[in-house]
Amino acid sequence: MSNIPILKERESQIYQKGRSGDFKMTCGKHSLAGSVSQRACVFCGSRVVLYPIADALHLIHGPIGCAAYTWDIRGALSSGPALHRMSFSTDLRENDVIFGGEKKLYKALSELIDTYSPKAAFVYSTCIVGIIGDDVAAVCRKVAREKNIPVLPVHSEGFKGTKKDGYQAACNALFELVGQGNTEDIGPYSINILGEFNIGGEAWIIKDYYERMGVKVVSVMTGDGRVDEVRRSHGASLNVVQCSGAMTFLAEMMKEKYGIPYIRVSYFGLEDMSKALYDVAGHFGDNPDIMARTREMVRDEINGIYPELQKIKKKVQGKKAAIYVGGAFKAFSLIKALRYLGMDVVLAGSQTGNDADYDMLREMCDDGAVILDDANPLELSKYIIEKKADLFIGGVKERPIAYKMGIGFCDHNHERKTPLAGYTGMLNFAREVYASVASPVWRFAPARTLGRTEAVS
Amino acid sequence: MLLKHTPTEVHERKALTVNPAKTCQPIGAMYAALGIHGCLPHSHGSQGCYAYHRSTLTRHYKEPVMAATSAFTEGASVFGGQANLLQAINNMFTVYDPEVIAVHTTCLSETIGDDIPQIARKALNDGKIPEGKYVIHASTPSYVGSHVTGYSNMVKGMVDYFSETSEHKSKVINLIPGFVEPADMEEIKRIADEMGIKHILFPDTSKVLNGPMTGKFKMYPEGGVTVADLKRTGASMGTVAMGRIATMAAARALDAKCKVGCEIIDLPIGLHATDLFVDTLRQMAGVNVPDSINFERGQLLDVISDMHQYFYGKRVGLVGDPDQLLALTKFLVSIDMVPAYAVTGTPAGKKWVKAMEEATADVPREVKIKSGGDMFLFHQWIKNQPVDLVIGNSYVKYIAKDEDIPYVRHGFPILDRVGHGYFPTVGYKGGLRLLEKILDALMDRQDRDASDIDFELVM
User: Are the C-beta atoms of B85 and B116 separated by less than 8 Å?
Assistant: First the structure.
């Protein structure tokens, strides 16, 4: 066994099914200072949620780093405008920090709106803005009056909580837009898709399914997003929310103010994908045609991919997978999808899961599986070795760790290049898993010959 | 048209940076700190900063990048980050067991005014720093300078904390590379080895961020300058610092602190800059240049002459860090290319602009130079008058695609190709690689655009 020590303070964030006694996992707590956590900040949370709105201006108020590191790194595709792919920053300098950045912000905003005539502007506050005390909201109000477009402050100072708080700040900004547009032509069989960011074109696939069922999609928030769609999203009859953390806040607010109910769904894997469609069809139970069309569509879609999925299953069956993702909700779907392929999940972790999420993970996982909240690379590598994982599913910072250890990897985060959502996505996912797990390159991996126990130092 | 939102007309912007050609100090400090063996870089600020730095470095090198954070909360931002840093130091030494913790600050901790040396002393007095282990620091506010400044500050921090004065100077030469790739650091060492010179190169990210696949995840890879060597830098006979903006601060500090004289030269990119590097080493160490080095020089010269008609008069647009731009510009001029535009996002100062102007004084065509610019301006210049080739980091690919211009990747970050971690662009061999890349880009374009009639096998 590897002898990597685990911080005492971290013990309550690690659970091993069937081994650990019965204790409640700690979660939602701020990361320990000095830990090599894989998490990010409030700003990051806001930025990833709002970024895909392609006809809005996104201005980052702060020193250059926050703008530089988030310049077009998320593959959220747009079918039209691409203003979101530009990087705009007030690039605060020492003098601005001393004398305040409000004037600079005002100038930058006015100039940008004159140049680009965006439909709306989002102004992101970064750490330093919270410290020097710029009244960003006041500048936004002033510019909004002068330019006659919505100018929305996003209170995303990095230190003011976790990434989740950033989701909330983004939802607050979006909520300012909701309710401003005309909803006259929206019928009763209509939904908003929330928490789908169109990475690799996923929103297009999902939207197509709903429309084939006879359900009108009023807005996608925020994949391939447009300001005008958000503004009239309160005309929809139902909010369909994907991803546990990011946009439930908005769904809650829309429920309270506009009485729009919401359901939580996931589009990953056959089971969850089908459920996401049937749940919506079920919601519109007064129109049996929708359900009939849904049944037919699901049958056709699954029939279309079934033969190849079965072939892949034969090849990956019995392989072991480790999952470390942002939101726990995605982990649930991944566990089901991997199980469908006959694979065992030996590690499941998330950056932002809550109590209910971890209870659910404990229920879903097999005996011996390790469940982690806010893990660090040493913990991840320790359990990958102990549990003899063949595949790691995670994000950018996890990829090279998996490769150094000589196991397969699948990016289920910003850097996925093919859509993994929907039925097509399940097939893509299976292909990716197979291509990586069964790749002949791992024959060269010394770990396979060394024996796994020595593979960390 | 990816950057269809870039208008052709240029007007002055004072409050706004669009499509930056720089990033902030802390990532440079983190990169430099990774060049100390057994070092865990530590970001004293919010959790997002270090997550972004680690992600960017990981994307650039395709290697695990280890660092820790003080994970500031609202409380820390009001009452100061001392408690966070003390706890962090304790946790890091307990769990991750580094030789050195290299703390860099962020805009947040700088503005609230945390005193890192005082906090580190408290950690020492409280017994939180184990015997023989170190906590060093550099002040790297994100609102001053750029990533290059952060690199420079952390390298100076190495001198401030470690270099020890000695009456008896050794036969060793200190080599301080600018913000260059691990492969470049390796090549600089190889040249010095070839000349039979004992050296200490710092920082040294070779074998840290271009390591082999061993089947092991190593928190602290094999490479990096050791603390023992860093201490001995004060006893060296001299220092050669490469790239004024990234390395002058450390070289001067070492001179002031330990009376080790320094030569500050350009990054050894291209023929003349490498000549100067080799000659500086030769004089300082009192050695002869071996035939093997002369042979490599001859090879570079050979390719330059073989292919010179392909270089002549080609207009090149350059975006990058100031030390790289200066050396590259001199190289391009020397092979009869025209560095038409040179933009750095770093506020590089009047001296840099003057050096660039001098380097291009004999170019018979207009040359535009901008310190503290951005890619938006660079793109606008190109829209107004196109170039034949662009050289820059991965973000230049938008411009290359939009304007349909041959493109060579060079600089930081490169997020979409491999090679930069393994193949140097410094030294004579590095010059060869640069020429190969430039020629490939230009000649591929010539082939692509040739009519069936003009399409030639032999070029």
Answer: yes
